[in-house]
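The authors assume throughout that readers already know how a fold can be written as discrete tokens. What matters is that the chain and its backbone geometry are given together, residue for residue. A single example would do more here than another paragraph of explanation. For illustration, here is how one protein appears when written out as sequence plus structure tokens.
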Amino acid sequence: MVASQQLTPGMTLSIENKLYRVESVVKVTAPKGQPFIKTKLRDLSSDKVLEKNFKVGQDVKDVALEERNLEFLYLEGKSYLFLDIGTLEQVLVPPEVIGEKVNFLKEGTPLLATFYGDTISSVELPQFLELMVAKTDAALDKNSLSNNTKEAILETGAAIQVPPFIEAGDVIKVDTRTQEYIQRV
């Protein structure tokens, strides 16, 4: 437990059995009334940000999270099977934790998983991945002067916009956070 005035960005809190990362902390002193601590908290399960106020001196439960490197193996039922690189144990990750990141998962994809005890609270892909283009839309009119793009389907099933010169079979670098094409490899 920590007092609310000791909160700092980056800390992880447990509030009503949900985990939150502190994004910002401001002490507010009102002309009338009691001062309070205003925070922005990111829900680690849904990635949504909410604002929450605490009384000065209010006890808040802080928790220590453990980060582990995992490597994607395959889909098992509705869950995703990963290999813990440090312990060589297999770890099942539920689909709600993976979320939209599933669009960039292929065998051997590394990621950083955050554990609270034995429960995975979040996963993070590397910012850049090299993936093969499985299919592209038909080529656009090459006489056009504007910045044209076309849709490409990657080997993982993700659909992103790429320049017109990218063809099926090309390997491209993709930013997994913005889901944008970076360059051809």
The mean pLDDT is 87. The first strand starts at residue 2 and ends at 3. Helices lie at 95-98.
